[in-house]
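ok trying this again, last paste got cut off
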Amino acid sequence: MREVLAGPGGGAEPTVFVDDEDVLTMTVGLIDTPGGLGMFDHAIYFCPFCGRELQAAELSKKAPH
């Protein structure tokens, strides 16, 4: 995680999008890899402003187990 945040784009603005599984997701970091630029994405479960649940974690394969 430290490497991703310190790498190129570590200070870049987050990108919010709906992924292929219809999960609201945010790119939080970029890293150079042998295969090209890699992105570190994280699902957004709660509104960062009001705390309201936006989507259920159990519906996402990205949820921590």
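PB: full thing came through this time. The longest helix spans residues 2-6.
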